[in-house]
Specification:
Layout lengths: L4 E3 H14 L3 H4 L2 H9 L5 E3 L1 H14 L4 H8 L9 H4 L5 H11 L7 E7 L3 E8 L8 H19 L7 E3 L9 H7 L3 E2 L6 E5 H5 L7 H16 L5 H12 L7 H8 L3 H10 L4 H19 L5 H8 L4 H12 L3 H5 L3
Parallel strand pairs: 5-6
Antiparallel strand pairs: 1-2, 3-4, 4-7, 5-7
Helix pairs in contact: 5-8, 12-15, 16-17
Length: 333
């Protein structure tokens, strides 16, 4: 099992947000999360699941279904990570998306990003890579609003996405969501993504500086290359990004990593795991999050998210790997 981590800056921002918002973290959080929050002011890295769990717990306890986006709107978009150095100098939104995808692990290993490209639109998908014990909807909503704010930083404050898609169900009240995203919002979608016009992706920005951007990219590459290579984390990211397309297979992931199938197997074995275990962990995260957030589970939709072409395959997976039928696992707890 891997222990993903994240830059502590985002957690420190959440703790500051909690204080200004009247959230009593000492009362709300359990002992483990309280200890992480206490250590955050002096820490460089923290467990990646911490802010995911903290946001979800605080949302449930305070009955604030918009807590994630409230945090994303409140936070300093330039204060979270080294990536903030790049954004003001990106010549296009495509450049911002590219550098975010390239260096996102410097900020957090809790989430991965991939692109779904259509003729007129590009979907920036966001997928959780860590087990979310209490659900991850608030964290996902926060990330998507941060991505929207990044778009406005690049293209101007008047810009908005074509639409926002969330895999989880809609809260009872999402007025603040409409106010902050300023575009159509679809809940219960096949993915969690910011949908952007292809014209907006390639539109030149007013203050872009390709030469300075290249310099800063080289600097961040130096920072990244100095860190230990998280081979298992790379595999997890590629599995998550290719699961719904049905391409989360060993040969395909090895090709993306530019290694042989045998090298991929050996690298995972040296870390005490295997491709089968990584794939199963990814599917378990999908199942856990799906049944936490869906009020009316749909086996066909779950099969798609698990990378299966038929609902019967998803049903067999639930019985064989999790020991539960869909009716039992979907039953409210």
């Amino acid at each position: 099992m891997t222990h993903a981590d994240a830059d502590a800056g985002a957690l420190r921002q959440f703790i500051s947000f909690a204080k200004t918002s009247g959230l009593d973290l000492d009362r709300i959080l359990d002992r483990e999360l309280r200890s992480i929050a206490t250590a955050a002011p002096q820490a460089e890295r923290v467990p990646a699941h911490a802010i995911v769990d903290m946001l979800q717990i605080c949302s449930v306890v305070t009955r604030r279904s918009n807590l994630g986006i409230a945090l994303a709107q409140w936070g300093n978009i330039r204060g979270n990570s080294p990536l903030s150095l790049l954004w003001d100098h990106c010549p296009t939104l495509a450049d911002a998306i590219r550098v975010n995808s390239r260096f996102a692990e410097l900020e957090s290993k809790a989430i991965t990003t991939s692109l779904d490209q259509q003729i007129d639109e590009v979907a920036i998908r966001h997928l959780l890579l860590v087990p979310a014990r209490y659900g991850g909807s608030q964290f996902i909503e926060s990330v998507l609003l941060l991505a929207t704010r990044l778009g406005r930083l690049i293209l101007g404050e008047g810009w908005s996405p074509v639409r926002i898609e969330f895999q989880h169900s809609a809260p009872e009240d999402y007025g603040l969501h409409r106010q902050l995203f300023r575009c159509p919002i679809e809940f219960g979608a096949d993915r969690s993504a910011v949908i952007i016009s292809r014209d907006d992706i390639d539109r030149p920005t007013e203050h872009g500086n390709a030469h300075l951007l290249a310099f800063l990219e080289r600097h961040l590459e130096t920072v990244r290359s100095a860190e230990p290579v998280d081979f298992v984390g790379q595999v997890d990211q590629l599995i998550a990004a290719n699961l719904t397309s049905g391409e989360a297979m060993m040969d395909h992931v090895a090709k993306l990593l530019r290694v042989s199938r045998r090298t991929l197997q050996r690298g995972l074995e040296q870390k005490g795991t295997s491709f089968t275990l990584r794939l199963d962990a990814a599917r378990r995260r999908v199942v856990d999050e799906y049944f936490r957030t869906e009020k009316r589970p749909n086996l066909n939709l779950l099969a798609y998210r698990l990378g299966y072409s038929e609902a019967s395959a998803a049903s067999r997976y639930l019985r064989k790997n999790m020991g539960l039928g869909i009716r039992k696992i979907a039953r409210p707890k």
